[in-house]
């Protein structure tokens, strides 16, 4: 159980004069064992913040801390949006899952089998290639691979937005169930408010590189303080409700 | 391992093709000759017979003799080893150097990689043969110099190829995942990058060997390559050329050898490329499975007095594949009236997009569209029906418009947005440039693009995603269409932008009385925009119902499951979400009976044997299910009481533990 803290994190791409600031002085706390849902429109800097957390985007300024100390890589794992690009097509899913494990760890195969069962796939599918799997199954494999590194924090970036609604539910159930059972700290990024509401304990709303609202999920979604949060909530499609003009 | 057998089947298939056989035979012949020829014919090739100088072809010397009376045919055969060997050596040098340079950015990091990239760019700009000549001068005239020269001349092209492919693979998420997992750069390169780019590299290496052979022959011919007393084909060609007027066969023999050997390498490369390209072949299924299920729908369309905008009956779309014909759309019937909005929902692979494309006449060969009726504004769109193609094109161009999911790929990135819009009316209505431009600006402001006059002069990349989609819709309404087909128009957009686009479509429909065929995987969005919803599954419509009934009064278990699977702002956060077990059937291998039966909680023996037809059970409502009356009880919805409108929710939704790979477990719990 670890707490992930972003302190004045800024990520700038390109030069100082011509570059763009994707993340602009973000302060954000993901409390230990809780899920923080990060919402915002595309281009708001959500994904860049996530990539910065796992070291895929260089920080221009600020710090990212795990329990007050600089992040150790192996404590953080990430799950990506596109299940079709997240797995190496040339590798069996078992090998993919085993990759983050220490190379000489005894009982790697048993551990792979355990993880496959954990995400709801049959253990004997370890030899399967990604192209034999559906999108939802691939996303479970990606989840199993993230868990194989025994992380304390998981960053999930739009993990269901490339999936059919019929499969989305199954993946979300697994994610939520595992998060509860393993008491994982999680940063869950999505542009779908209904999904964020279902998975998260706390919501952070991001706009133009800044966090504009932060609070417990029920509070933010029922009584939004920021104008932009209200706008987002209004835009959520409600069946049968006329669109207005 | 199914994959391994699949791959080996692919290679055997490639070997059996005429190209594969030719390439394999030539390559084996060249390689065997390279090994064997010097052992057998060396003596004969070197035997100087002063009595037989410069003789023409005879039974003793099939292509004659040279200046020293040596047998040219034997010399050509013996030269195979040196020619092929040196070419392969040069290729090896080129490929290794290219690989090292091309993968360096992965190993050395961003900054050093950029310098190496620049180096490659400069090297690529030099013509290879010129580079080879340049190196030949530096390394000195002779075989060693030529090998190094050709090797280094091959390297830049190969480095560029490697660099590009490495960059493509490196941008994929599994590389990012490996980096997050703490895997070292060298291991990432060896485990993830190289295996994924190996196939195209092997192909181009084989081709490069052919080119190296030709280059080497050229250098030797010019006297810059192999020096006497050694000889390769290039030198033999040079020697033969001096005597070409005395007896041409001598020069020709070496020339033919060069051509054949180069062909052997190039054809092998081509064959390997084809074998790799054969990826999409679907193994092992027969064609009948698809055709067995084409039960014509007997259900007559409820006919209205006014002529519908669009009338489709028993629409089928099929594609030939290596394993026979598949039919992803199997008998869809629908009507759209003036100003009506019809939604089509379904999972990916249900055939909803193909249905739209078929209606818009956008299915390309070898795809085939068949229908009992396909009328748009009274015109028969079916293929083979006698009519003027031009008229049909104009009708579709002006009265039907299509909006696609990804606005970035549907606009031409190199043309100003306004001009692209204007082109529609210029093409179909013959409007002059100024009128067309005015109309384009007018339409852009109609789709609420601020500063339309200025925006019309911009290129698509200067627009945001939402604005691009609005511009696409603007293009759709340039010519007063009667029907707009929108295929997942908001899937790539944010909620706020999605709302604007949906509002825009609704406004256009109201203002101009346009029919709308709206395709989406999202029941919620469809519920907001449409009057009526068609639910598609495995290429057929399984339910047709008014939008008001979608949430609480759907009769097909699939529709109900689809609705229940979408979390909304009232979903109970403490219960697992409802899921649909299993996955949609493969169009190559449809089950007998109802295609939804393997995933359905209500499936009985009847369902597994007989495919239910789409039948009317109430005004404007059709369903294809044997147990439609039971569905509301068996598959409860997940909406809370506050969201209920008609009190049809029954039973207590029991938490479901199903996953998408288990088959046929109860969906959302049984009736208590």
UniProtKB/TrEMBL annotation, chain A:
Pfam families: ABC_tran, oligo_HPY
SMART domains: AAA
InterPro entries on file: AAA+_ATPase, ABC_transp_ATP-bind, ABC_transporter-like_ATP-bd, ABC_transporter-like_CS, Oligopep_ABC_C, P-loop_NTPase
GO terms of molecular function: ATP binding
Gene3D superfamilies for this protein: P-loop containing nucleotide triphosphate hydrolases
Domain ABC transporter: from-to ranges: 4-233
Highest taxon above the source species: Bacteria
Record key words, sorted: ATP-binding, Nucleotide-binding, Transport
SUPFAM superfamilies tied to this protein: P-loop containing nucleoside triphosphate hydrolases (SSF52540)
Protein name: ATP-binding cassette domain-containing protein
Species of provenance: Paractinoplanes pyxinae
Higher taxonomy: Bacteria, Bacillati, Actinomycetota, Actinomycetes, Micromonosporales
TrEMBL record, chain B:
Primary location class: membrane
Subcellular location: Cell membrane; Membrane
UniProt keyword list: ATP-binding, Cell membrane, Membrane, Nucleotide-binding, Transmembrane, Transmembrane helix, Transport
All residue ranges annotated as the ABC transporter domain in the record: 310-563
InterPro entries: AAA+_ATPase, ABC_Ni/Peptide_Import, ABC_transporter-like_ATP-bd, ABC_transporter-like_CS, MetI-like, MetI-like_sf, Oligopep_ABC_C, P-loop_NTPase
Membrane-spanning ranges: 21-41, 86-108, 115-139, 201-224, 244-265
Domain ABC transmembrane type-1, first and last residues per copy: 80-269
Membrane topology (UniProt): Multi-pass membrane protein; Peripheral membrane protein
Region (Disordered): 283-306, 636-672
Signal peptide: none
Domain of life: Bacteria
Assigned protein family: Belongs to the binding-protein-dependent transport system permease family. Belongs to the ABC transporter superfamily.
Protein name in UniProt: Dipeptide/oligopeptide/nickel ABC transporter permease/ATP-binding protein
Organism of this sequence: Paractinoplanes pyxinae
